[in-house]
Amino acid sequence: MFSFNHKKIERKWREEWDDKGVYEVDLENAKKPFYNLMMFPYPSAEGLHVGNMYAFTGADIYGRYKAMRGYDVFEPIGLDGFGIHSENYAIKIGKHPKEQAKISEKRFYDQLSKIGNRFSWNNRLETYDPEYYKWTQWLFVKMYENGLAYRKKSLVNWCPSCKTVLADAQVEQGKCERCKTETTKKETYQWFFKITDYAQRLLDGLDKIDWPNKIKTAQRNWIGRKEGVEIDFEIKKGSELVPIKSGLASKPEVTEPLILTCFTTRPDTLYGATFMVVAPEYAKKLLKYVPEDKKDEVEKYIKKALKKTEQTRKKDEKSKTGVDMGIKVINLASNKKLPVFVADYVLMDYGSGAVMGVPAHDQRDWDFAKKYNLDIVEVIKGGDVKKQAYAGEGKIVNSGKWNELMMPNDMGKIIDDVEERKIGKRKVEFRLRDWCISRQRYWGPPIPMVYCEKCAKHATPESKEVPLRRVTNAGWYPEKLENLPVVLPDIKDFKPTGDGKSPLEKADKDWLYTKCPKCGAKAKRETDVSDTFLDSSWYFLRYPSIKKSATPESKQVLLRRVTGSPFDKKITENWLPVNAYIGGAEHAVLHLMYSRFVWMALCDWGILPASATPESHSVPLRRVKEKHKSGWSEPFPFLFGHGLIIKDGSKMSKSKGNIINPDKYIEKYGADVLRMYLMFIGPYEQGGDFKDTGIQGMKKFLDRVWRLFDEKINNKTSKKLKRKLEQTIKKVGEDMGSFNYNTAIAKLMECTNLWKEDGEVMSEQDGQKFLQLMAPIAPFISEELWSKLGGEFSIHNQKWPKYDEKLIESEKVIFVIQVNGKLRGQFEVDRDEVENEKKMIKLA
Q1: Which residues pair with 656 in a beta bridge?
Q2: What is the DSSP letter of 408?
Q3: CB contact at 8 A, 360 and 284
Q4: 82 close to 43: Cβ distance less than 8 angstroms
Q5: Which of 350, 466, 726, 823 gives 807 a disulfide partner, CB atoms 3.0 to 4.6 angstroms apart?
Q6: How many CB atoms lie within 10 A of CB 719?
Q7: pLDDT digits 0-9 by tens, 347-406
Q8: Angle, alpha carbons 443-149-569 (nearest 5°)
Q9: pTM to 2 decimals?
C-alpha cells in the first residue's frame, strides 16, 4: 500500500528544526510574547507514556496555532526530578537516585524529542541541578526572613511505606497520594510555610482567573472558608477554677480560668449545648486536668485513637465511641456545667479540634447523646427532638433573652450579643492548614537552615537578629545567601530509616556541621529535605531567566543580599504571568495552590512587580513600595484542564498493567499519526479510550493526504472544493483557538473526503493553506509536503491562512415560491444553480 516514510521524514525535520533554531525565542526582544506552558513533568522511571504525550501534544498544538497567529511563543521543557517517586524507583531497582536521575533524564528527553513538540530546548531545567535548587533554597530563606517559614512540633501525616511526613494535600482519603498506603499521625518537629496567611487571598483570587470550575471548586473546598463564632467555655476541675501560672516568676502566682474555645457556625444553638467533644489530638493537651481515677482510661483511648488513620476514624463515625474525661466546662451563656468527652470522630481539621455538642439540632450529636445518656435540650422550634435532631429554621426557645428571635434572620443579633457579653467573638475559620515542608528522605534539596546550640541558650523573643520574623525559632538561622546552594551530599545508605530521622543524618561530618551564621560557633545543618512541591511551585518563573540573572542593583531585590536573582527583571515583566497553562486536575490542591501562594509572597516582597498593599497582614514589616501592575495578582490567569487517556475503560496505571508506551507506535506509525489519533479520540478536556484499531484509521487518513498531494494537485481548485476549503479554514481556526482538536480534525477529514472525489482538484496555493491548517497537529508531514510545494521554510513560521467571507456561505440556499405576493412553497437548491433561470422555473 502506498505510504509515506515517516521515519525518514521525522528524522530529517527534527534535525533541521534544531539546526535552524525554529522554536527558540528572542526572550529579550519579543514583540508579542506568548508563554505557552504545560505542567511540569516528572521523569517517571518507565519513561513517557501516551497519557503524558496526550497532555503535551494538546498543549503544543495550541502553541503552534498561536505562533501562526503572529505570537512569539515560548514553550520550554524541563524535569521535576527530585522527590519520592524517583527515589522509590531507584530503591526498587537498586540504584542510587543521582545515578538513576541521569538515566531517566536521557530517556525522557529522547522520547520528548520525538513527539513533535516545539520545545525551546535552550531553556530547559532539572530540579536536581544545583544551579536550580540553589534558588529553591533561596526561596526558603526568603520565606524565613519574611516570617512565613517556621519550625514547630506538630502531629503530622506519616506514610509508613514512604517513611516520610506528608502535607495535608498529599493525603487523599486517608492514603498517601503516591503509594496509596494508609497514613498515620506522628508528632515531630517539622518546617512549615504559613500558607494560611494567604487563605483569603487564595480564595478571592479564584474569582479573577479563567480556570475549569472543577479545579476552582476543589481549591475553594480545600481552603474551606466558614464564617462563625469562637465560643469560650471555662474549664472547671471539680468546683474550682483551674489555676494557671502567669509565667512571670517575679510576680505572685495568680489564678485565672482556663478557656476551652470551640468554633461554631451555629451560635444560635449555644443554650442547647449539653456536652463538649474534643479530638484525641486536642485531648492530649488537657490530660493534666483529668482526675486521677479517669486518667488511665482516657490515656488508653487517646493512644488507641491516634493509631487509627483519619480515613478509618471517618468510617467509624457512625459507631461514635468516646470517653468522659472527668472535666467540666461552664457554658458562659447558660452557666451550666457540661461534661467533656474525647472522641475519635472529631478531627483536628475543624476549628481548634473542640466542638460543642448540641444534640437537639445536630444528628451526630443526637446519636452521641443517646448512646451516653446525655441531655437533649430543644432551642429551635420546628421538629420533634425526641425522635431525631432538627437542623432547620425556626423560633428560638429555652435560650434566655434570645427567646422569640427567628433563625436564621436574627443571627446577627445573636452574634452581637455574644460579643457584647464577651463569651465569644466573630471568627472566619479556614480548613486550610500550613504547608508542611519537611521530608525525611534523601532525594531533595537540603533545607538551608542551621542550628546553633550556643545561640539557642541566649536567644530571647526580643532578639535583634530576627527583625523580620513573627515566629522565633531560637538558635535556628538560614544559611548565608552567598553560600547557596547547600549541595546534597553523596551518601551510600540513602534509604529512609522510618524512625523520623532523615538519611542525611548519616552524611559526613564535614557536611553535617558548619559554622553558625550568627556567632561563628559550631552548628548543625538541618537534615530534612524540602517537599518536591516546593521545587515545582516556582519553576515557571525560572524558565525565561535561565540564561540571564538580575544584578543586585535591580529594584526588585531591595530585601536581598544575594549576588544574583532567579528572575531577570526585564524578561520576567515581559513574559509573566503565563499566558496559557495546560495540565490535569490531579494537582488542584497541590501544585496549583502552592504556586499561587509562592507567587503572591514574591509579589508582596517586591521581587515580582505586583506588590501587596502596605496593609497586607502577611507582610507587616515590608519596606518595598512598588506600584501594582495590573494582571499580576495570579501566576496562571488562564488554565486549561485536559482529560485523561484510558485503556480498556480504566485509567492507566502500573498496578492495572495498562500503561502504553508511545515508542512502539511512533516507530510503527510515526509521531504525526499518534498525535492526530490522540487528539481525535475525544474532546481534549475529556480524554478518551486508546484503541489500536483507531490509530490504524488515522494512519490511513495521513496516507490519503500524502496521495492527494501527489495525485490531485492542479493549477486551479475546483469550485466545490474551494468553498469547502474556505469553510474548513474558518472552522479549524475556531476549533484550534478553543482546544476543540477532535472537531478540527473531523473538518480536515471532510475536506479530504470531498477532495478525493472525481473531478475535485486543488491548486498548489490552496494546498499550502490546507497544510497550514494541519501543521499544528501533524508537524512533520506538513513540513515535508510544504517543502515539496516550494513553500518558504518553515511552515511553522507562516501566518495562519485567511478565509474568503463570500465563499464560506452555505452550499445550499432556500428558493422561495410566491404567487401574487403570497408564499406558495419553497425548496432547497445548490447555490451554484441559482443563476440557472430555466432550471429554477422548472423546479418551481
Answers
A1: none
A2: T
A3: no
A4: no
A5: 726
A6: 11
A7: 876 667 899 999 999 999 999 999 999 999 999 999 999 999 999 999 999 999 999 999
A8: 85
A9: 0.86
